[in-house]
Write a structure and sequence with these properties.
CATH superfamily of the largest domain: DD-peptidase/beta-lactamase superfamily
Mean pLDDT: 87
Helix content: 25-40%
Amino acid sequence: MSKNYSSKKLLQVHIIKWRVAAVVGILFAWFGALAIRAAYLQGLNTDFLQGKGDDVATRTLAIPANRGMVLDRFGQPLAISTPVETLWARPSVTQSLSWQQVSRLASVLGVPSNELAKRLKSPHKGEISINRNLSPEQAVKIAALGLPGLKLQREFRRFYPAADVAAHVIGFTNVDDVGQEGVELAYQDWLAGKEGSRHVLRDRRGHIVQDLSPARDARMGGNLGLALDLKLQYIAHRELSAAVEKNKAKGGGIVVLDAKTGEILALSNLPVVNPNNRKNYQPGLMRNRAVIDTFEPGSTIKPFTVAAAIEHGLVKPDTVLYLPKDYTVGPKHITDVHYHPQLTVTEVLQKSSNIGAVKMAMQLKPEEFWDMLHRAGFGEKPGSGFPGEASGKLRDPSTWKPIEQATHAYGHGLSVSLLQMARSYMAFANDGVVMPLTFLKREPQELGGERVLSTSVARTVREMMETVTHEGGTATLAQVPGYRVAGKTGTAYKLINGRYSTDSYISSFVGMAPASDPRLIIAVMIDEPRGDAHYGGVVAGPVFAQVMAASLRQLGVSPDATSETPTRLTQPQANRKAGEA
């Protein structure tokens, strides 16, 4: 019995020794592996551990740069940056917040508590933004709560004092203060400046413990001075808005140019959105249609048709053209709104005769007519520097069919932007010289243009265009009391889905004053007027007259009209007399 007991005891001892040896072996192997791993990390891969430690303890904080201001030509602010506080949260810390703490924070922010709780208790390991547009009062209340894991950071928010009045020129920035449209986008690098940085040591709750190196200060963005005159901008926007409403139009645009310098003094489009309030933002409403969109110009192209014919010695202002009721070119029949059996070349412009314009254009070689249009800037970007500006369409003359040459004579078959149209009329206003366009204020020493017409041809056509606003012309409502006005109306069928609409029009007027020595050029376009009239002289002409009159007074331009200057017709008379293709 004792012998069996001794054997069992001995076996148990061996088992215990074996188990101890196994456990000790495993422990030694584990510690050995840890020692090898530690030696590897500390001796051969120290950067990894150092980086992990720095991730927890150190941060490089960005110091935002104050974006430069956008100013009008007289220093009036059009875009400024105001300081705001942004609330950041570290979910790894805010997960521990009680429901009462979350509710108090939600009350300050004005958001539902359950939605805020989801964000504060998310599995995100870094920092997340909770609100990037806090008012100063909200920032003070949040700081007073003293909740762990939250951080207030100073940023800047863009504010536009002129609101929607200058929105299409100025554009706007996004939540990160980066330009998205207009001059905010075009001059992003200049306006943005350069942010600074601060290298700090923080504890696990995100509190800054120590600055690890001197801070690098932010560099403020540069201010940008525009050519825009805010007073003229208000006038242009007001009158355009009134015309669009009166004529029940889809929209419209207006451009006011300084004829002497090429500066864009005012530019407005409708519809538009207030860039200070983008809750219901629609990208299409911020399109600068006067620069980006194109349309068929209609009869506003006819002065260039006449200029080409005069330049090549085919006609003179008093040359009489005999006109049929129906002019056929290929399969197309060209007619006039009002039939005139004969007209002088000047009267072709005054009455806006399609047939008269076509008879002159068809005497030109396609290359000659194209050259005139090309020199005027059609088919090329106007060079304003605005993002997305359109070049329009002007096909190579070698591809023209006779009917295309004919329709180009009265502004169909090619497309232009409203800015292009205003720019082209500088050729008549500046005695044949077209100045480079600019949205920026231009210094006198920067002036220098391109000659596209001879002085004699430019002056001759300008004098002929004065008759358009006289009695018997298509734009008597474009007269400006005290000033001589030269210009041209346009009414074109709108091209929709590749087909010409029978009841949708683009109505326009482009003109200059004072005609004896033009200072301003104004181009007006009304898109799809649905009121009592649709002709350019009746719909767009009055907008031109109101804006031009107010602008010339504002600029102190001396009147040049004499007592013999024709008087304006009444509205009913103008409606009866106005008419162009």
